[in-house]
Amino acid sequence: MWIESTIAMRFLREGRAQTTLILVGIAVGVSVIVFITALIQGLQSNIVERTLGTQSHIKVEAPDEVNRLVALPADTTQLVLETRRAQRLRSINNWQQVMTTLDAFPGVKAVSPVVSGPAFARRGNAVESVALVGMDPARYQRIIPIGEDIVAGSLRVGAGDAVIGRLLADDLGIRVGDKFRLVAGDGREAQMNIAGIFELGVRELDQRYVYLDLKQAQSLLDLPGGVTVIDLTVHDLFGADAVAARIAQLTGLKTESWMQSNAQLLNALSSQSLSTVMISFFVALSVAFGIASVLSISVVQRTREIGILRAMGTRRDQLLKVFLVQGAVLGFAGSAVGAFAGYGLVWVFNTFGPKLFYIPVAPVLVPMTMAVATLTGTLSAAVPARRAARLDPVVAIRHV
Amino acid sequence: MSERGEEVLRLEGLRKSYNVGQPTETEVLHGIDLQVGRHDFAALIGPSGSGKSTLLNLLGLLDAPTAGDLFLLGESTRGMDDATRTARRASDIGFVFQFHHLMPGFTSLENIVMPLMVAHGRPSAGTIERGRSLLAAVGLADFADRKPGELSGGQQQRVAIARALITRPALVLADEPTGNLDTKTAADVFELFRRFNREFGCAVLVVTHDPRLSGVCDCTIELVDGRIVRDEKLL
Asked: DSSP letters of B76-142?
C-alpha cells in the first residue's frame, strides 16, 4: 500500500490548484453539515430541556374506575347501556410499596409521590382557581428543580407554609409573608402563609400551582395518607415510553410518559431531524460528485503516466488503490478543515449570535463526520479509479 | 537473427488483427517469425503503418496476438491473463518510449526505482544504491533530486533508459527513443543502449526511423506491410 499512497499523494500535490479547490468545496460542505447538525441538536435538546424542566418524565396514577358487569348465566343475552363513571380524585393503593418498587426499578432515576387536586385560592374578594401540589421537597426537587426558580422567599412547605407562582401572587396581590386561604370544597379550608414565590416561565404553572407539603394537601383534598400521582424521571429520556409500559405491566397502574403527553412536540422534532438528515445527505452527495469529477479529470490528465505505470508492471488493483486513496485523502483532509470551520461557526453563533440558546457540539459529531466524509471520498473515487485501472496500456501510452 | 546465446524471445506465426469479427476487421501483422537472443542489439525499421508499434506492443506483452505464439524466455505467453502478463512485464521487460513518460511528481532517482517500488513497495538501501549507480552510468549522478521538468530532453530520456534497466530485464524495448532528440544527443542515447546491451547482457530492440542509428545496431529487422522483409546481421 506504500507505493499506492505515495503515488496518490504526489498526484494530489502536483495538481495543487485542483486539489485546493476541491478541498475547499469539501470543507464548505462538511462545515455546513457540522454546523447545521449541531444547531438542530442544540435547538432540540433545548426544547426538550425546557419542556421537561417543568414536568416529570413519567406519571404513575391510579387506574381509571370502570363499571363491572356481573357474570351472567350461560345462554343469556345481555344488552348493556353503559354510563361511564366519573373519575373521582383517589389515591394509588399501597403507594408506599409502589414507591419502594419504583425506587429500585431499572432505568428510573428519581421518584416523587405527589398529591394533587383542584382548589380555590382566596384573598379578600379575589378568588383564583388553583392546582394543589402536595409533595416532599427533597424528592420533588429531583424531578423538577423548583428551588432554582424561586424568585422570592424560599422553598419551604409544611406547617401552614405554601409556595406559589408569581402570576398567582400578582393576581392575589400578595408577597412573601402574606396570608391567603385555600378552599377545597366540602368545608375543607386552610389559612396559608406564603413562604416563597417561584417563576417557572410557563404561564399555566406560574398562575395555578400551589405547593404544599404532603400532609396539608392530603387533608385539604380529603385523601388522608394517600397520593394521587407518583412522578418519575428516567436515565434515558427517549426510553421513557418503554419504562412506562414496563411499570404499567408490573403494577397495573396507569402510566403516561412525557413522550405520550408531548406527541406533537416529538413529531415536530423528528420532522426537523429528518430535514437535517436530508440537507446533510444532499450536501454530502454534491461533495461526492465534486470529488468524482475532479478525480475523473485527473485520470484523463494522467493517462500517459497510468500507461507507463502499467507498462512497468503496475497491477490494475494498484492503480485502483492510487485513485481510491486520493478520494479518501481528499475526504479526510477536506472534512478535517470543514469540521474545524463548522466548530468555528458554532463558536461564532454561541458568542455573537442571538443567544437564544447554547449549541453544544457532541464530541462524536466531528470524528463521525470525518469518517463519513472519508468513506464518501473513497466511494466517489470508485468510478474514476475503475476507469484508471481499466485503461488499456497501449492506448494510454499513446495518449497525447 | 542471432543464434548466439540464450533465447529471450521467439515469435511463431504471430498475427494481429483489429476489430476481430467485424466487417472492418484488419490484419496488421501477417504471421511474424522472429528470434531474439540474450546479446542481441536489434533495430526494428519500416515505414509508417508497417506495424512496428503493434509488434512492439505484442513483444512487450502490452497486447495479445490474435494468432500465433510468443515465447518469452522459453515460456509460451498464449492465453496468459492480464495479471500474469503484468507480472512478466515487471520482471523481464524494460520500456523506453519516444516521449520519456517520466512521472513529473517524482525525482529522477525515484523515477528510476519506480518499477521496483511498484513491485516491492518502499525501496531498500540496496535499491536506492542501484538507482544511483544507474544514474551515474547514464551520466546524471548529480541530478538525482531533480524532477523531470528540470531536465533537458536528452537527460530525461537517459533517466527513462536507467528506469528501464533497474529491474535487470532480459529484454529492453525502445520505441523511437531518439525521435525527439537532436542528432548528437540521439547518438549518445544509442551509445548507452549499446553499452548496457554489452554490460548487462540484455537484449535490446529499438524501433527507429533513423538509418544512421539503425546502422549502429547488430542487426536490422525491416517490417513492411506487416511482414518481415529483412532480418539480417550487420556485423
From this structure: E-TT--HHHHHHHHHHHEEEE-SS----TTS-HHHHHHHHHHHHHSSPPHHHHHHHHHHHHHTT-GG
C-alpha cell at B9: 524471445
Greatest mean pLDDT among A305-319, A328-342, B37-51, B63-77: A328-342
* pLDDT tens digits along B166-210: 888 888 888 888 777 777 777 877 888 888 888 888 888 888 877
Question: In A, which residues are within 8 Å of B207 by CB distance?
Answer: none
Q: Count Cα neighbours of B19 within 13 Å in the Cβ-side half-sphere.
A: 7
pLDDT, position B1: 46
Biggest CA–CA distance in chain B, Å, is 56
Directed axis angle between helix A316-352 and helix A2-14, to 10°?
60
Which of B 112-131 lie inside 8 A of A, CB atoms?
114-115, 117-119, 121-122
Domain chopping of chain B, boundaries: 36-62+82-233
Instruction: Identify all chain B residues contacting A13, using CB atoms and an 8 Å cutoff.
Output: 105
Question: Domain extents for chain A?
Answer: 2-49+266-398, 95-252
Going by CATH, does the domain composed of B36-62+82-233 fall within 3.20.20.70?
no
State the Cα–Cα distance between residues B186 and B178, nearest whole angstrom: 5
- Measured between CA atoms, the residue of chain B closest to residue A307 is B101
CA B84 vs CA A57, A66, B89, B92, B141: distances in Å? 68, 84, 9, 12, 35
pTM of the model: 0.74
Q: What is the CATH number of domain A95-252?
A: 2.40.40.20
Compare all CA atoms of chain B with the CA of A316 and give the residue at the minimum distance.
B83
| Tens digit of each residue's pLDDT (9 = 90 or more) over B15-66 | 888 887 888 878 888 888 888 888 888 888 888 888 888 888 888 888 888 8
- Report DSSP state, residue A236: S
Nearest chain A residue (CA) to B97: A397
User: How confident is the prediction for chain A on average, in pLDDT?
Assistant: 88
In chain A, count H helices and then E strands: 15, 10
Distance of alpha carbon A336 from alpha carbon A27, whole angstroms:
7
Q: How far is B84 from chain A (nearest CA, A)?
A: 10
The Cβ of residue A236 has, within 10 Å, a number of other Cβ atoms equal to 11
Q: A120 has which bridge partners? A: A129, A183
Set of chain B residues whose Cβ sits within 8 Å of the Cβ of A326: none
Q: How many residues does chain A have?
A: 400
Quick one: cell of A243?
419504562
With residue B173 as reference, give the H or E element that holds it: strand B171-175
Q: Are B101 and A13 in contact (CB < 8 Å)?
A: no
Cβ distance A305 to B117 less than 8 Å, yes or no, reads: no
For A1, which residue in chain B has the nearest alpha carbon? B121
Instruction: Give ipTM to 2 decimals.
Output: 0.84
Encode B214-230: b = buried (16+ Cβ within 10 Å), e = exposed: bebbbbbbbbeebebee
Kindly determine whether residue B86 and residue A310, on different chains, have CB atoms separated by under 8 Å: yes
- In this model, does residue A381 exceed pLDDT 80? yes
**Distance of alpha carbon A366 from alpha carbon B222, whole angstroms:** 66
Residue A218 and residue A212: Cα distance in Å, rounded? 10
How large is the average pLDDT for residues A76-81?
A: 82
CA distance A333 to chain B (A): 20
pLDDT in tens, A91-101: 888 888 988 98
Report the alpha-carbon distance of residue B40 to residue A333 in Å, rounded: 52
